[in-house]
UniProtKB/TrEMBL annotation:
Keywords: Carboxypeptidase, Endoplasmic reticulum, Glycoprotein, Golgi apparatus, Hydrolase, Lysosome, Metal-binding, Metalloprotease, Protease, Secreted, Signal, Zinc, Zymogen. Residues 1-20 form the signal peptide. Gene3D superfamilies: 3.50.30.30, Zn peptidases. The keyword Ubl conjugation does not apply. Coiled coil: none annotated. Homodimer. The monomeric form is inactive while the homodimer is active. InterPro entries: CPQ, Peptidase_M28. This is Carboxypeptidase Q.
């Protein structure tokens, strides 16, 4: 009898560890992604059969056609193309550059034109170099020291920042605005240290702009690899008379029509409440755009497939949007938001993946305090999958234009330590994406979409005037 009583006591006092409905759904999502995920196969085709997808290119159109066909094959309720006019900038013949210590004594260095730059003169450009640590140095030096020279922006990304995107933000202004600002002081061209924490021989391109600079006053701009930047810096310190030569053949053509690719599952209870998950389909042309942002596109596509395959019936309308022209114009994100507003659509949530296909760590959330707390309250559901970061922060460039009061925006946040090794460079290629990490990211995104859809967002209390 005593033994029976002890067993009865243990049964009553021991917690009951059966899985909740949410735990079961998340496990089903992760299991499906890790055993039958489609993201890696889709990315393989985008990267190895199509390649770099610069806006307005043949490859960008091939990517539109391919992803639409794949979404059609998933049995979604609706798949369509949303027209958008995009800029067409072409690189032309590969760039060439060297450091000249004295006539006849030269060392070649790797460079690439920045996206949107003008070309050098047909014979190239050769001039003395003045090194600066940022745009703010231009005013200190003045026109007398800058005019007739090539300005060399050599501020590196800060290696002490664990958040590498913060390090990137700390010096990307010299890439975007460096040419426009140096031109005001009579510079002939600019060379910019690549946005890369690693020392290597890959120059990293990226968007730049001239602002209101007249066309005939625009000067060419190129990125130099980090190894090349260190060599150039050391050379001009030892020999201030050294010169730099570079030649690039890029050109801005007329805008052309392209498309956002959109797929939709209609909500069963609240079809007018729309939730978006997406990435940008365009990429730079040096590599094949696997991490930036082929990964985000195929993960977003797989979110809808994962929910369908696990038998989940969404209450709200779920859309995957593959945005065109994030890299050099933001036309796709702006067009989607414009059409949504013109139609009076009610978007309650949007999630973007545009930080690479590395191991997911969590989400940055742009939302009200109440909605942030709700999402942070789901942390325990994600911890078995080593997802632990749920913090207030930015979401994504393409979904930013959708932002309205009460809406929840989120960005997938993978581990970022290796991201800028590949960002906008020739080595952003398929072999640098790990299949399991990519699939974990898709499952993590699908899990958050499921929870937001099931529980909704917290209504914002509007203050009466």
């Amino acid at each position: 009898m005593r033994t029976v009583l002890i067993l009865a006591f243990l049964l009553v006092s021991t917690p009951f560890f059966s899985q909740t409905e949410d735990e079961k759904q998340l496990k089903a999502i992760y299991d499906e992604a890790l055993t039958n995920g489609k993201a890696y196969d889709w990315l393989n085709y985008l990267s190895n059969q199509i390649g770099g997808r610069l806006s307005g290119s043949v490859q960008a159109q091939q990517a539109v056609d391919y992803t639409k066909a794949q979404l059609d094959s998933l049995g979604l309720d609706k798949v369509w193309l949303q027209p958008v006019m995009v800029p067409k900038w072409v690189r032309g013949v590969p760039e060439f550059a060297y450091i000249e210590n004295k006539p006849g004594l030269t060392t070649n260095v790797p460079i690439c034109a920045l996206g949107g730059s003008v070309a050098t003169p047909s014979g190239g450009l050769k001039a003395s170099v003045i090194e600066v640590n940022g745009i703010e140095d231009l005013e200190k030096l003045g026109r007398d020291k800058i005019a007739g020279k090539i300005v060399f922006y050599n501020r590196p990304m800060d290696p002490t920042m664990i958040n590498t995107f913060s390090a990137y933000s700390g010096c990307v202004d010299q890439r975007y605005s460096g040419a426009a600002e140096a031109g005001k002081y009579g510079a002939l061209g600019v060379i910019v240290r690549s946005m890369n924490l690693r020392l290597d021989d890959y120059p990293h391109t990226g968007s730049m702009g001239y602002g209101d600079t007249p066309v005939d006053k625009r000067i060419p701009a190129a990125a130099i690899s980090t190894n090349g930047a260190d060599l150039l810096s050391a050379t001009i310190k030892l020999n201030p008379n050294a010169k730099f030569y570079f030649k690039q053949n890029c050109k801005q053509l007329e805008d052309v029509q392209s498309y956002n690719v959109i797929g939709e599952i209609t909500g069963s209870e609240y079809p007018k409440e729309i939730m978006v998950v997406g990435g940008h389909l365009d990429s730079w042309d040096l590599g094949d755009g696997s991490h930036d942002d082929g990964a985000g596109c195929v993960q977003s596509m797989d979110v809808l497939r994962l929910l369908k395959e696990t038998g989940y019936k969404p209450k709200r309308t779920l859309r995957v949007v593959l945005f065109m022209n994030e890299e050099n114009g933001m036309r796709g994100g702006n067009k989607y938001a414009e059409v949504a507003r013109n139609k009076g659509e009610d978007h309650i949530f949007a999630l973007e993946s545009d930080s690479g296909g590395f191991t997911p760590r969590g989400f940055s959330i742009d939302a009200s305090e109440e909605n942030l707390k709700q999402i942070q309250g789901w942390r325990d559901l994600f911890e078995p999958y080593l997802i632990h970061m749920f913090y207030e922060g930015g979401s994504g460039a393409d979904i930013g234009p959708l932002k309205e009061e009460g809406m929840v925006l989120a960005g997938l946040r993978p581990d970022s330590q290796r991201y800028f090794d590949h960002h906008h460079a020739e080595n952003d290629t398929f072999e640098h994406v790990n299949k399991r990490e990519l699939e974990l990211g898709a499952a993590t995104m699908a899990s958050l979409v499921y929870l937001i859809d099931k529980y909704g967002t917290v209504p914002v209390k509007k203050i009466k005037g």
